[in-house]
Amino acid sequence: MTEALHREVLDDVRARLVTQGPRESGRGPGGPGALGGREVARRAGRGRLAAAVAAREGPAGVLGAEGVLGVTAALAAQITGAGPLQELVDEPGVTDVLVNGAHEVWVDRGHGLVRLPPRTARLGSEDDLRALAVRLAAAAGRRLDDASPFVDAQLPDGVRLHAALPPLSPAGTLLSLRVPRRTAFTLDELVAARSVPPAWGPVLRALVTRRASFLVTGGTGSGKTTVLSTLLGLADPAERLLLVEDGGELVPDHPHVVRLVTRHGNVEGAGRVDLVDLVRQALRMRPDRIVVGEVRGAEVRELLAALNTGHEGGAGTVHANTAADVPARLEALGALAGLGREALAAQAVSAVQVVVHLRRRAGHREMAEIAVLERDERRALTVTTALGPRGRGPGFARLQALTGAV
Ligand SMILES: Nc1ncnc2c1ncn2[C@@H]1O[C@H](COP(=O)(O)OP(=O)(O)O)[C@@H](O)[C@H]1O
Ligand SMILES: [Mg+2]
User: Fold this and answer.
1) I need a surface site. Which of 100, 101, 220, 358 has the fewest CB within 10 A?
2) What sections of 58-194 are H helices per DSSP?
3) pLDDT score at 182
């Protein structure tokens, strides 16, 4: 069955369940409209799901018995969410839920990882946990089994899922759930949370409105995607933002956002659409800004080329543990795209003006420095601090020129 048909049937069945309402419990106060489709379906149970799928299918039988089962399973996976972990995922402030086998669950509520007392998550046995992992993968439209024992995907509600099965993980099934914020932080909120020094606010604002191109850098989980969302929200509402991403992680508060997301291919790799393809497409879609959610491969070449051919105001995030690591990281990415060191340096300094570096220390996420990207006397790429923990750095004058001396 084609993916489009599959989706069409799922949507139709979901709509049916919502309009029919829960059969067993009768209609609650306010009628069926008061219940979300998810809640209705949760009450409905698997039997009613299968019946609804069969009803949608009608006598023509395009799906076949196996198809009905497949659609039912996919729908059940979608509507029952993360099972026993859903409560944790829904808890306000939770950023990560990590399961290391059936007896070990860690949660980050924004202040670092904390281990839950044993059995509080009610995961059941290792078999139950494995079944949950498989179900979650199915909800993301992916397979998880002995033949493909890892999955990295996005769940329908935006949660990022990574799963690994034994024996690759001897401790049992591993789940890593990254919970996205549903709305971006405002710049004022980041300042209030002491993640951005108050004096840097106007500089960041000017950087965006003056359409400098910038990279947000930092280690894993340092808040790069979050800060990029915040900064994009400062862009002129009249601009058209084209976001190119692996999953839909960026949530800028902006009226005109167009999103393109990559697609995994089938087992042979057919149908795969990667970031390189997407950046090329984005260029033809009349963007005012091109944004690559996370630059981690050969798409660096397309992004830099775009920013060097009249597409200013572009942005992206790049993994780097320190600001000083950024040039080497860019060179490594350039090498993946066949760009030598010299070519990469030439492209990068003319494409990207500013690096905003983040760090995470003892659970606290903060902006560590705002720097300018330059070439040193040996023509090597360097990141020169403009504003850092000790105030102004040697790159300050250049930053001031870019931001109009705020
Ligand atoms: N300044 C902050 N204060 C509190 N939580 C934050 C902050 N920045 C990010 N987070 C949270 O931390 C998690 C990781 O942030 P994210 O932006 O995805 O990091 P990265 O892109 O660097 O991996 C997210 O759940 C996010 O909501
Ligand atoms: Mg990120």
Assistant:
1) 220
2) 64-79, 86-90, 126-139, 187-192
3) 75
C-beta 301 within 6 A of ligand 1: no
CA of 230 to the centre of ligand 2 (A): 13
In this prediction, residue 127 carries a pLDDT of 94
Distance CA 119, CA 383 (A): 48
Q: Write the pLDDT tens digit of every residue in 8-64.
A: 666 776 666 655 543 333 333 333 333 444 444 444 456 667 777 777 766 666 677
Taking the centre of ligand 2 as the mean of its atom positions, its distance from the CA of residue 243, in whole angstroms, is: 13
pLDDT band at 358 (very low <50, low <70, confident <90, very high): very high
Helices (H), ranges, 105-261: 126-139, 187-192, 201-209, 224-232
* Contacts with 77 (C-beta within 8 Å, 6 or more apart), sequence order: 135, 136, 138, 139
Determine the atom of ligand 1 nearest the C-alpha atom of 317: 21
Taking the CA of residue 195 as reference, the ligand 1 atom at the shortest distance is 1
Run of H or E residues at 54: helix 37-57
64-79 and 3-20 helices, crossing angle to 10°: 60
CA distance 390 to 368: 10
Cβ(110) – ligand 1 distance below 6 Å: yes
Tell whether ligand 1 has an atom less than 6 A from the beta carbon of residue 190.
yes
Q: How far is the CA of 185 from the centre of ligand 1 (A)?
A: 10
DSSP secondary structure string, 125-178?
A: SHHHHHHHHHHHHHHTT---SSSS-EEEEE-TTS-EEEEE-TTTSTTS-EEEEE
Decide whether any atom of ligand 1 lies within 6 Å of the 247 Cβ: no
* Integer angstrom CA distances of residue 5 from 11, 64, 144, 272: 10, 13, 22, 19
Domains of the chain plus CATH, in order, are 3-79 (no CATH), 83-178 (3.30.450.370), 187-403 (3.40.50.300)
Pairing of the two strands 315-319 and 289-292: parallel
pTM of the model: 0.74
Q: Is 193 in the pocket of ligand 1 (CB under 6 A)?
A: yes
Closest atom of ligand 1 to CA, residue 228? 17
CB of 266 shorter than 6 A to ligand 1: no
